[in-house]
Amino acid sequence: MSTISSSDPTSLALEARAPGRTSPSEKLTFRVGITFALEFTNGPYRVAPRGRVMDILLCLTADGQSAPGRTVTVTLPEGCHYADGGVGTRNFQTDAAGQVSVAGVKGSATPGEYTLSAASANARTTARLTVTELPNLGTIDVGGVLDPVVVSPDGTRAYVGNRESNKVSVIDTPSSTVIGDISISQPWGIALSPDGTRAYATNFDLGFVSVIDTDGLAVIDTISVDSYPAYITISPDGTRLYVGHSASISVIEVASRKVIGTIAVSGWPGIVVSPDGTRVYVGTAVIDTVTYTVIGQIAIEGEVKGMALSPDGALAYIAADYETFFSKILVADTVSFTVIETLDVERSSFQIAITPDGAYVCAINLASASVSVLDTADLTMIRTISVRSFPWGIDFSADGSRAFVCASDGTVSVIAIP
To answer: 275 and 166 in one domain?
Structure first.
């Protein structure tokens, strides 16, 4: 009597039993000739320190055909993290096309060359991951009147709106050089998809949003919205865009690239989405993203110039101007909608941003051409940094150690934080 079994798809085991015996008297193992091939299909990879790696794509085949439902083991190099903060080796299942996608991996904090590895059955493969150097401190000459600036999720690019020259300029952050320009009419707002493959820029005077392929640096589509689209932001999951007008917010479904809702507001508000995507903050109004209704108001005096949320969404940091020509940063509780702390800053505080880890809040001071740095641990102002004249926009490197501040004199200042 004989039995054939296999736990390895590349081999079979033959067990032979003599009549009347319960255990095999002989076991033979032989190959069946299945050849698996595994590859990283979009590597090599490049990020700034702590930058989000583009979605890592792998493809597994068996004898040249897709291999669905198979286990692929991925190992991250030291210092890198999965989206949930985990490290090391994890198993993933191939889809119907034999593919695996690993999203949200963060690069190491230390610049250098690293190796990603993956295995499945008798297949092994590797891909290079380069963590770039941080940009040098100083000034990047771009030209025109600049605002806003938005850093890519991987940290290797900064997209800068140029309203005077009607374009979005793209900066390679490690080298601090402009690597391309994209024609956009009066780009007041820029948003990037979570994976960094798409950018969305408002065309203020033309009434539409441009969809940009960030690989080719080209406009691939436009989305018509209400008149004078200014500010724009994207939901954390990348499925919704929120576009600010003088009296409304257009809600765009990213997949269909169509407006699916409108929210009535007042003024020219900036827009901030909560980390969980359930709320949109427009000025002092708090809006539910399912019902598009106002569910609360943060009671403040003065005019809101900018807002940033803590990484957990529990606190709102608000830059506000007052009729007496002084400015404050207000710290508000997002559950009670009340201000719990008030801090004086330089006159004409205009925009505000928070580092990715939530450790520091930076406020741009338009009149004094400076940036005020707030330590969120004890809510104290710890530093004021001079920048170029009439600064407008600010964003951070992926690790939060650098801030990019764009100004109306056509420059982007790179400063150290804190």
So the answer is: yes
Give the integer Cα–Cα distance in Å for 272 and 408: 23
Element (H, E) at 100: strand 99-102
User: Which run of H or E residues covers position 229?
Assistant: none
**199 & 97 share domain:** no
State how far the Cα of 1 lies from the Cα of 6, in Å rounded to an integer. Answer: 17
Q: Where would I find the beta strands (DSSP E) of 214-359? A: 218-224, 232-234, 240-244, 248-253, 258-264, 271-273, 279-282, 285-288, 294-297, 303-309, 315-321, 327-333, 338-345, 349-354
pLDDT for the residue 24: 55
pTM of the predicted model as reported, rounded to 2 decimal places: 0.91
80 token code pair: 């890198």
Residues 286, 197, single domain; the answer is: yes
- For 336-374, how does the pLDDT look when each residue is reduced to its tens digit (9 = 90+)? 999 999 998 876 677 899 999 999 999 999 888 999 999
Burial track 176-203 (b if 16+ CB lie within 10 A, e otherwise):
bebebbbebbbbbbbbbbbbbbbbbbbb
- Residue 27: pLDDT band (50, 70, 90) is low
Per residue in 116-133, pLDDT (tens digit) is 999 999 999 999 999 999
Per-residue pLDDT tens over the stretch 84-93: 999 999 999 9
The label of the residue with tokens 């509780």 reads 333
Same domain, 110 and 8: no
Q: What is the CATH number of the domain that holds 310?
A: 2.130.10.10
Domain span holding position 399? 138-416
